Structures are given as C-alpha cells and as structure tokens.
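Lay summary. Proteins are chains of building blocks that fold into shapes, and those shapes determine what they do. In this project we predict the shape from the chain. Here is one chain we studied, written as its sequence of building blocks.
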Amino acid sequence: MPAPKKLQIVEELTERLARASIAIGAAYQGLRVAEMNELRRQLKAKGVEVRVTKNTLLRLAAAAADKPEIAELGEGPTVIVFGYGDAVEAAKAVSDYAQSAKNAFSIRRAFVEGRLLSPREVGELATLPPRPILAGQIAGALRSPVWRLAQLLAGALVQPTGQLLNSSLIQFQGLLEARSRQLEAQP
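And here is the predicted shape, written in a compact code that computers can read:
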C-alpha cells in the first residue's frame, strides 16, 4: 500500500495532467539548485509549471488521468513541465530555456492533444506563431478567395447575361479554331 504522501502526490499529478494542454518531459542533470529555481521562476512567469517527479508516480498519475502515453515522458531523472494555456507558448518557453541552459536541460518528449512528440517536433511547435496571429493568417487566407469570387460575381451582374454568354461563345469559337489550325499544322 503506497504511503499517504505518495497518494497525495499522485492525486496532484493526476489533476495537473488532466488540466494540462501540454506536458513536456525533460532531463535536468547538471542544473544547480539556483538554476532550477531560476527555471521555475522564468517558466512560472509564462504560465508554465515545473515539477520534478518520480517515474513510478508519474505512471500511476497517467493511468489515473486516462492518458497512459504520458508515462513515456518519465525515463531516468525527469522534470515534467505543465502548460495550461496555449501549448505553443509553453513549448516556446521551454525551448528557449533549453537553448540557454547549455546542455544541462534538454527536452526528451512532450504530450499534446493525445500525441507524443519528439524533441524535434517540440522545437517545431515552438516556432509556430501564437494562436491569435495564426487565426488571423487563416482568416486572411480564407478571405482572399471569397473576395475574388465576390468581384467576379459583381462583374457578371454588371454585364447582361446575353452579352456574357455571347462573349463566352465567341471566345470558345476562337479557341476551337486555334486548336484546329494547330492540329492541321502537325504532320
């Protein structure tokens, strides 16, 4: 029977895993206590929580949270980073710290939306623009074809239907004649 303290830790981890939009497992060997405190301070300012955990407790919490894949984040001495808001912002904050830590802190894997990510994929996630900018880019991309269609329809409404059909038929006839001449010129 696990000790009450360990059961409490498993409950806390389960609650964090259930709320987290991203969970990142990282190696932290070589970080001094002061550096670990600085890591916690920097990431907390960005809405990200850092927790050193035993792998067995992480496995229990992952099973309790119905996310057994998260147990794969724990291999060797592990720090788990929980992001509760935008997963991209959390990945960016952790990646920035990993680059400044000079190999004392390295990302192993991450769990986002039911999927495990490699360190390379976490780096790619960190390079994405924030959600509001990405939403604006998508809206702009969707707006452009709709605007073109509206302009085309406005032009069609200005011309009477008969003229539009007549000019289309004339263009089609010219196209057929040009293709006919092209085929006749071939041996």
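What the prediction tells us: Residues 133-185 form one domain.
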